[in-house]
Amino acid sequence: MFTHTAIANLNGLELIVYNYAIKNKDKVMYMTIRELADAAEVSTTTVLRFCKKMGCDGYSEFRIRFKLYLEQEVHQPVNFGVSEILSFFKSINNEEFDELINQAVIQIINAERIVFVGAGTSGSLGKYGARFFSNVGKFSNYIDDPYYPISSDMFKNAIAIILSVSGETPEILRLASQFSLHHCKIISITNSETSSLARMADFNLSYHMPQTLISGEYNITTQVPVIYMLEAIGNHLAKTYLKK
Prior knowledge:
- InterPro entries: Homeodomain-like_sf (IPR009057), HTH_RpiR (IPR000281), RpiR-like (IPR047640), RpiR-like_SIS (IPR035472), SIS_dom (IPR001347), SIS_dom_sf (IPR046348), WH-like_DNA-bd_sf (IPR036388).
- It comes from Limnobaculum xujianqingii.
- Residues 104-240 form the SIS domain.
- Keywords: DNA-binding, Transcription, Transcription regulation.
- Helices cover 53% and strands 12% of the residues.
- The chain contains twelve helices and seven strands.
- It has helices at 4-8, 12-23, 25-28, 33-40, 44-53, 59-71, 82-91, 95-109, 121-135, 170-181, 196-200, 224-243, and strands spanning 113-117, 140-143, 158-164, 185-190, 203-206, 213-214, 218-219.
- The strands form two sheets. It has a five-stranded parallel beta sheet, sandwiched between helices. The chain has a two-stranded antiparallel sheet with strand order 6-7.
- Strand 1, helix 9 and strand 2 form a beta-alpha-beta unit.
- The longest helix is centred in the last third of the chain and has 20 residues, at 224-243.
- The radius of gyration is 19 Å and the shape is elongated.
């Protein structure tokens, strides 16, 4: 029901409805459209738009299909964040997502140099991505310091894979601008395809997980989808090289 493509087409308010529904599954089945709109703090019009993007004619059909969706789930003890992660994996279990991974590989395959870019947690994942890609035979390095000096040689026949949850970190956007200015292709992996970084990139993968902040500042949004995407691209690259 909730495919990766459908979720990617949601705007900010519609994504709030989706996140509320996923986190409050047992309640939503019995809610009226007004109750859901009030609970998610959006308008009923937004809820209707969300339903239509999920392939439903209206809210009544959405509730029926949502109930069937829940009945098909494999029930297991729910830990913190598990429902959102399971929903992510269900949304990408299709040919549409496989094609997105394939498109990313096509962008990468002919590049002589891959540079992973990220700050904080995303910087650590960039380091992991660089090692993983190097393991499959595609030498890569990483930048986890947003003030790292970039030489002109770094852009030659290169592709930058830039990681950012928000896609709005000023220092990362500055680095992305430098890569773009020197005609270096950019693949971004962000939580939302509407972020500044996603719009700046030549190709974007997004994962649409509920953002979690501590003290309104420290971002602890799960990065499981990012690791999966990096490994999916790396494994696809490995298969490509094995064929040569």
